[in-house]
Each structure stands twice: as C-alpha cells, then as structure tokens.
Design goal:
Elements lengths: L7 H26 L4 H20 L3 H21 L5 H22 L5 H8 L7 H20 L1 H9 L1 H6 L4 H23 L4 H13 L5 H26 L3 H23 L2
Helix pairs in contact: 1-6, 1-9, 1-10, 1-11, 2-3, 2-4, 2-9, 2-10, 3-4, 3-9, 5-9, 6-9, 9-10, 10-11, 10-12, 11-12
Length: 268
C-alpha cells in the first residue's frame, strides 16, 4: 500500500485534499448551526454554471467559478434580507436558476467532455501543481477572513438578534459567511466534485456536533473528521480503483454514523 507515495499525482492529491479537509468543515460548522446547510448545495449547482461558462468561452475555470459563485452568494444574501421572500425560497430560486443556466451553456458548448466530468465528480489524479497552489491561496484567504470575523460569526451563529442589539453589522457578517462558503465550494470541487461538495462541507461538521464538545473543540473535531475522510478515502480509492470523491464522502458518512451511534450509546 505504501507504493502509493511513489506517484506524484497522488502526492498532489494528498496535498490538495489535506488543505480542503481542514478548511471545509470550519465553514460547514457555521452553516450547520445556523440551519443554512442548503446554501452549500445551492452554490455547488451555481458553480456548475461557472464551469460551463468557462468551457464555453475558454476562460479559467477556477477564476470564472469564483466570480460566479461570489456574485450569486451576494445576490442570495440580499434577496434573503429583503424580507419579501423566505431564506430557503431564495436558495431554491438560485439553485434551480443556476442549474438551468448550466444546462443551457452546456448545450451551447455541445455537451459534456472529460474535463467537465472531472469537475462534476472530482478527480484526484488530475490535480496539477497549479491547482494545489490555487487551493493553497484560496485557503489562506478563507482562514484570514475567518480569523478577522471569528467573534462576530460565533455571535450571530448563536444569537443574531442580540448581535444586532450590540451594534454588530450582522448583514456584513452574513455576507462574509456566504462569501467564505462560495470560496470553499470552489476550493473543494477539484477534490470531491461539484455533485458531492456540499456533503463534504456539512457531514464532518454534523459528525463533530454529535460528540457534545465545546464550540472550539467541535471545530477542531470537524477538521479532524474531514482529514480522516480525505486520507482514508484516497487510500481506499487507490486500493479499490473507485472514484476518490465518492470514496471520501462515503468515509465521511460512515464516520457520521459512528459518531451518531456513540452519542446514542453514551447519551451525550
């Protein structure tokens, strides 16, 4: 099994996967606690439109998707704050609209190709050195914003109304959260794919919450669940010759089942 390390594409996949495994659950924990998990699924479908747009016009897929998901996340938050539409309705509108736009763009581009499938379902073997560098830069940006707005994010996560009373600009903090989510979706799609990226954000966080730990310990536990999922998933993918993205998410789901079962047994 150790011969896996002789392949450079596996090492690049492990590097990229480790970065994503650490970042994605950090954002996912806020989404789960705020009952805003659907936004990850919405932005993943919107990112498909970004990828389709990039292939159609010959643009950089990562940069194009960052632009599309960022603008969409801001639009979702503004629509949600108008009070004329419920939050989940705004998400459903953008999800269906993004998927429809992607379908139109793909039809104009004469359908699917192998590169698109790599983005849809993830492909560790196609991760390049430039991809690793891009993922690393995005991770630095996400961590920086997370540190800068950490206290505000925690405050609005547990009591948004009190945060408003205390003078915190909750609208701005919410925009930061959806921006972080959109960047994390782009960060993760090369590893687990657009179709599974929302699961990778949510499942490790949901698993950590089953342990009944303090908030900071829960954040660390969610990152640990993500890390174990990626490393185990890549090894299983190599040994069983199955897609790495699906393998990673399946391991993550099994870890959730184990954490949930432990909670039932211990009564925590």
């Amino acid at each position: 099994m150790l011969d896996i390390f002789q392949y450079s594409f596996i090492l690049r996949g492990l590097e990229a996967g480790t970065i994503v495994a650490f970042i994605a659950p950090l954002i996912g924990i806020f989404l789960v606690l705020r009952r805003y998990s659907l936004i990850a699924d919405t932005l993943s479908h919107i990112s498909l439109a970004g990828i389709a747009m990039a292939f159609l016009f010959g643009w950089n897929p990562i940069l194009t998707t960052i632009g599309v998901t960022t603008l969409s996340s801001v639009g979702i938050e503004r629509l949600r704050n108008t009070k004329h539409i419920y939050g989940e309705s705004a998400l459903a509108l953008f999800l269906s609209g993004g998927l429809a736009l992607a379908t139109v763009l793909l039809s104009l581009g004469k359908g699917f190709n192998s590169n698109l499938l790599n983005y849809l379902f993830g492909s560790i073997v196609t991760v390049t050195s430039n991809d690793v560098l891009t993922i690393f830069i995005l991770a630095i940006i996400i961590i920086t914003l997370l540190i800068l707005f950490y206290k505000e994010l925690v405050y609005i996560t547990f009591d948004e109304e009190s945060a408003k009373v205390m003078g915190i600009n909750t609208g701005r903090v919410n925009k930061v959260l959806v921006l972080l989510t959109s960047l994390t979706v782009v960060l993760s799609m090369r590893i687990v794919g657009i179709m599974l990226v929302s699961s990778f954000l949510i499942i490790p966080a949901a698993s950590a919450l089953q342990l009944g730990l303090s908030f900071r310990s829960t954040i660390l536990a969610s990152a640990a669940f993500g890390f174990v999922s990626v490393i185990s998933g890549i090894f299983i993918s190599y040994a069983a010759d199955i897609p790495a993205g699906a393998s990673i998410v399946m391991v993550s789901f099994l870890l959730f089942c184990a954490a949930f079962g432990l909670r039932k047994v211990t009564g925590r």
